[in-house]
Design a protein that fits this description.
It is a single chain. The chain is α/β, with parallel strands linked by helices. The protein has a single domain, classed as Rossmann fold (3-Layer(aba) Sandwich). The chain is 40% helix and 22% strand. The chain is globular and about 45 Å long.
């Protein structure tokens, strides 16, 4: 029976890069779960790769049809942005291949409740806060229209969202410190292999 491995961590911990490296590893044979969002596309993003970009109206229609597995709404300085997972036939836990997705603690709780505690495994990534802030600022500077206010809001919100209490309540015990990308990816790959 397949599992869903969910990569989580504060912003700018390298989740997207780690995800990209893990999904490409042939020895892991992981399948993607592509989440949905109503936030605007960033420079260099492509619809259907990291996210399915949707409108508020499309989200309402999916909710009406009972297709939304989990949904989170963030009150940003640009208005509400929704992130959600859809029951759109991407996931078949009766199969033999495991899945990989990036999410938050809130999403982890909802997906775990939907699919079962033994089927959803957290992979929590950590980076020292000063290094995270430097990374986030560097990433934002590269945008055509940098959203510095939103970057700061996310940084502060992450402190609350990923508090020690919230991590404990979610049952997150194992942590992966992302100091050297290759080593972090190899360590997570070994962890996934041992969990099979």
């Amino acid at each position: 029976m397949a599992k869903i491995y969910m990569i989580m961590g504060k912003s700018a911990t390298g989740k997207d890069t780690i995800y990209g490296r893990l999904i490409k590893r042939k020895d892991l044979r992981l399948k993607k779960i592509i989440p949905y969002t109503t936030r605007p596309m960033r420079e260099g993003e492509e619809n259907g790769v990291a996210y399915h970009f949707s409108t508020d109206q499309e989200l309402e229609e999916l909710c009406r049809k009972g297709k939304v597995v989990e949904k989170r709404t963030y009150q940003t300085v640009y208005g509400p942005w929704h992130y959600f997972t859809v029951d759109d036939d991407q996931i078949d836990l009766a199969g033999e291949r495991d899945y990989l997705v990036i999410g938050t603690l809130e999403a982890f709780h909802q997906i775990r409740d939907y699919y079962g505690i033994s089927r959803v495994v957290p992979i929590y990534i950590e980076v020292e806060d000063g290094a995270r802030l430097t990374r986030a600022l560097g990433r934002e500077k590269k945008q055509k229209e940098p959203m510095y206010e939103e970057m700061c809001r996310r940084f502060l919100a992450d402190q609350k969202d990923f508090s020690e209490e919230n991590l404990r309540n979610a049952g997150v015990k194992k942590r992966f410190v992302n100091q050297t990308l290759k080593q972090t990816v190899d360590t997570i790959a070994d962890y996934i292999k041992k969990g099979r």
